[in-house]
Automatic annotation (TrEMBL), chain B:
TM helices/strands, residue ranges: 25-43, 73-96, 108-133, 199-218, 224-245, 252-274
Designated name of the protein: ABC transmembrane type-1 domain-containing protein
Stored InterPro entries: Bact_Polyamine_Transport (IPR051789), MetI-like (IPR000515), MetI-like_sf (IPR035906)
GO biological process, one term: transmembrane transport
Membrane topology: Multi-pass membrane protein
């Protein structure tokens, strides 16, 4: 960098550069303003608007009635059921993914890459079709149903129940748990574990006191990546949960499509958005930028 | 950071070692078994999915003859190409602007740029639907614009989420490159465009292509946003299939699914190969 002769010139050059940067970003700024920020603003406005008798949403008589309805037992039941299903799915994903991520991280590089590709392929494959695959398995004469019932493991007919939805969510979002867990376990400095073992820690103690705390960012990141989309899930419940409108995603869709209650649907969307924002803030707090 | 794992400490011993291996094998089976079963039954000659009655390509034949599906695939391809091109250009510019420059309001833009990535599908879908409902008249007043057409709405909403994904991927690439090459070009009297064309763009190309692949995948995969904004006569294949499979299982959907799955896996493999080529170029 050349040294500017006068501070004034340097300042002007800096200004010009900053203006160039702004102009480069401008098309995207305008696009997102029109097609993202304004739509978001309209949804927020809807949540404070009035529903007319015919089901139209009028942007007049601002009120917080829609948010008041969140306390109603029907809406609360939907919210809690969604929270519960999302939480159970997240825990199952964590239990399945942690040992797998640990296993992958401790392989030799060539094997490790192959195993990772094995996780990447479902991660990138069409989500809708992967969910539909379970619809085939869970059908009354599907393989899953027959195997489970045949082995006497209980009733295999779980299609159109919460169990099927949880199964579908776990199947759909498991790669989202494995990848961040892998990222954080892989970078653990194993000499720390060696040190613990040298100090007579048992394998289990070394894991609990060294490996687990060091992999925490991955646990938090993975949990959020599974929990947030599970909470607002629409496709999985629609395919595996039948037509029951008991979950947040489908309940919101229902408000706009059938019930024609724009303000309620909008206020629920804002709530889902808030859940997601809180989750993301926690994610960044944990320094979990590493997917 | 030690890359070479000391296996004696990292790998548990005895029984737990075998439990770990067994568990991993089961999880991989869980990942792939459903897909194989789906593919297997798509070659079933029977009308009933669960009853195997011999090998047949009949459902793939039906798929090729089904004009509605063909048409919806064309819609998807059109939307995918248009939205990918637009979002790659806008997303790359946004990435350059944030990563290489400092300007007033940048922090706010950076934050907004993250939102489409983390926003739940349903919220995004509601936003786009309500927006087109309220703003369609305003847009249609502009000559040459007709937002009653589904394809335009699909492209506009896919770009709205894809810009962010493209810019994240390009930024990751830019962050790993230091700016000295670009400064050197500027010192050699290259103007802004020449520097970009001959230095920056070739260097970030892998990131741009990676972003494009991501945009293609997301556009083709999207069901929720698309089903909220698609109009009659402009149903993308994901929405069409979603509508079909909500009605139940059929061997025809299995065949369609296998084709879609094969296409999306081909994209994954392409992106992984691309990544390999890139990382070997970096000489890492």
């Amino acid at each position: 960098m050349t040294v500017a002769a006068t501070p004034g010139l340097e300042y002007q050059a800096e200004r010009a550069r900053s203006r160039r940067g702004f102009l480069l970003g401008l098309p995207a700024v305008i696009y997102l303003l029109v097609f993202f920020v304004i739509p978001l603003g309209i949804v927020v406005a809807y949540s404070f608007a009035t529903r007319t008798r015919t089901g139209r949403t009028e942007l007049t008589d601002w009120n917080i009635d829609a948010y008041g309805r969140l306390g109603e037992s029907v809406v609360r039941a939907v919210a809690f059921r969604s929270l519960w299903i999302a939480a159970v799915s997240t825990i199952i994903c964590l239990v399945l993914a942690y040992p797998l991520a640990y296993f992958i991280s401790t392989r030799r590089p060539v094997t490790r890459n192959l195993l990772l590709v094995g996780v990447m392929i479902p991660f990138w494959s069409n989500f809708l079709i992967r969910t539909y695959a379970w619809r085939v398995l869970l059908d009354s004469d599907g393989i899953f149903t027959q195997v489970v019932s045949g082995l006497g493991l209980g009733d295999g007919r779980i299609l159109f129940t919460s169990k099927a939805v949880i199964l579908g969510l776990v199947y759909g979002y498991l790669p989202f748990m494995v990848l961040p867990l892998y990222a954080s376990i892989e970078r653990i400095d194993w000499s720390l574990v060696e040190g613990a073992r040298d100090l007579y820690a048992s394998g289990w103690t070394a894991f609990r006191r060294v490996v687990w705390p060091l992999s925490r960012p991955g646990v938090v990141a993975g949990s959020i990546l599974v929990f947030v989309p599970s909470f607002g899930a629409y496709v999985t419940p629609a395919i595996l949960g039948g037509n029951k409108k008991g979950l947040m995603g489908s309940y919101i869709v229902d408000q706009f499509m059938d019930a024609r209650n724009g303000p309620l649907g909008a206020s629920l969307s804002v709530v889902v958005l808030a859940v997601m924002l809180v989750g993301t803030l926690v994610y960044f707090r944990q320094g979990g930028r590493n997917l | 950071m030690t890359k070479g794992v000391a296996h004696s400490t990292a790998e548990p011993m005895g029984l737990s070692r075998w439990l770990l291996r067994g568990h991993s094998a089961v999880v991989y089976a869980f990942f792939y078994a459903p897909i194989f079963v789906l593919a297997f039954y798509s070659f079933n000659s029977s009308q009933i999915v669960g009853k195997w009655s011999g090998f047949s390509l009949r459902w793939y034949g039906d798929f090729l003859e089904n004009e509605n599906i063909q048409e919806s695939i064309w819609i998807s391809v059109k939307v995918c190409i248009a939205s990918t091109l637009i979002s790659v250009v806008l997303g790359t510019l946004a990435a350059l602007s944030i990563e290489r420059f400092r300007w007033w309001g940048q922090k706010a833009f950076d934050a907004v740029l993250y939102l489409p990535i983390i926003i739940p599908d349903v919220t995004m879908a509601v936003m786009m639907m309500v927006f087109f409902g309220e703003a369609a008249e305003l847009f249609n007043a502009i000559p040459g614009v007709d937002l009653t057409q589904g394809v335009e709405k699909l492209v506009l909403s896919h770009v709205a989420f894809n810009i962010s994904f493209v810019s994240v991927v390009v930024r990751a690439r830019l962050a790993n490159l230091d700016a000295t090459m670009e400064e050197a070009a500027a010192d050699l009297y290259a103007n802004g465009w020449q520097t970009f064309r001959h230095v920056t763009l070739p260097l970030i190309m892998p990131g741009v292509l990676g972003g494009a692949l991501l945009a293609i995948t997301l556009s083709l995969d999207d069901v929720v946003v698309s089903s909220f904004v698609s109009a009659v006569g402009a149903t993308p294949v994901s929405v069409y299939v979603f509508g079909m499979l909500r009605k139940g299982v059929s061997p025809l959907i299995n065949a369609v699914s296998v084709v879609i799955l094969a296409a999306s896996m081909a994209l994954v493999v392409a992106s992984l190969v691309l990544e390999r080529v890139t990382s070997s170029q970096k000489g890492k």
